[in-house]
Amino acid sequence: MLKGATDFVAEYTVTTISLPDEEMKGRIIGKEGRNIRALEVSTGVDIDLEEEGIVRLSSFDPVRREIAKVAIERLLKDGRIQPARIEEYVTKAKQDVERITYESGLSLVSESGVQNLPQGLVSILGRFKFRTSFGQNQWLHTLEVVKIAVAIAGQLGTNADLTKKIALYHDIGKVVEEEGPQEEVGAAVLRK
C-alpha cells in the first residue's frame, strides 16, 4: 500500500462562487428571473443565491457543476449577463471542460503507464477528475489502485500490463451516464 499512496486533494465536493458585490446577484437573476432560468436550463444545475455574496451550484452531475461554474465566473467578469450571452458562455465552457476532461484522461493514462487507448475511452477516464467516491477524488483513487495492482502483479508474477488496464478501468462504470450496476455499465463501455 505504501507504493501506491498519493496525496489526497478533495476537489469539486462543493461548488460555490463568490460574488464581487450584491449588484451581481441582481444581474444573475435578471429581469423577472430570465437570466437565472436561462442558466439553470442551459447548464442543468440548480442555482441558489440565498447566501450573501455566494452563488451555490447544485447537481448530482459534477461535470455539469463545473460547466456552470466556468460559465458563471466568465459572465461575472464580463458583466453583461443576458440569455443570449449565457448560451454563448455555456457552450464555450462545455468545450473547455471537454478539453480539460480529455487532458485529465491523458494524464491518468500516462501516469498509469498504459498506452494506445482510443480517444473516447481516454475522455471517459478523464471524468474521474470531477468525481469523488467516499470522499476521495476518483482520479487519485484510480492511480492508487493501478500502483497497488502492479505491485501485487509483480509479487505474483502475473502480466503487469494487463493488470494496469484492469485497475485503470475498475470504476469506469461510475462515470458513464447509463442506468444499471456500475460493473455491468463499465463492462458494456469496454466492450464497445
Structural category:
mainly alpha
Shape: elongated
> How many E-type strands?
5
Order of helices and strands: EHHEEHHHEEHHH
The chain-level mean pLDDT equals 88
List keywords for this structure.
elongated; disordered N terminus; three-stranded antiparallel β-sheet; 192 residues; two-stranded antiparallel sheet; mainly alpha
Describe this entry's structure for a reader.
The chain has 192 residues and is mainly alpha-helical. It is built from eight helices and five strands, in the order E-H-H-E-E-H-H-H-E-E-H-H-H. The strands form two sheets. Strands 1-3-2 form a three-stranded antiparallel beta sheet, covered by helices on one side. The longest helix is centred in the middle third of the chain and has 30 residues. The chain is elongated, with a radius of gyration of 20 Å. The two termini are 33 Å apart.
Walk me through the topology.
Layout: E1 15-18, H1 22-29, H2 34-43, E2 46-48, E3 54-58, H3 62-78, H4 83-112, H5 119-126, E4 132-133, E5 136-137, H6 138-156, H7 160-169, H8 182-191
Antiparallel strand pairs: 1-3, 2-3, 4-5
Helix pairs in contact: 2-4, 3-4, 4-5, 4-6, 6-7
Overview in brief:
With 192 residues, this protein is mainly alpha-helical.
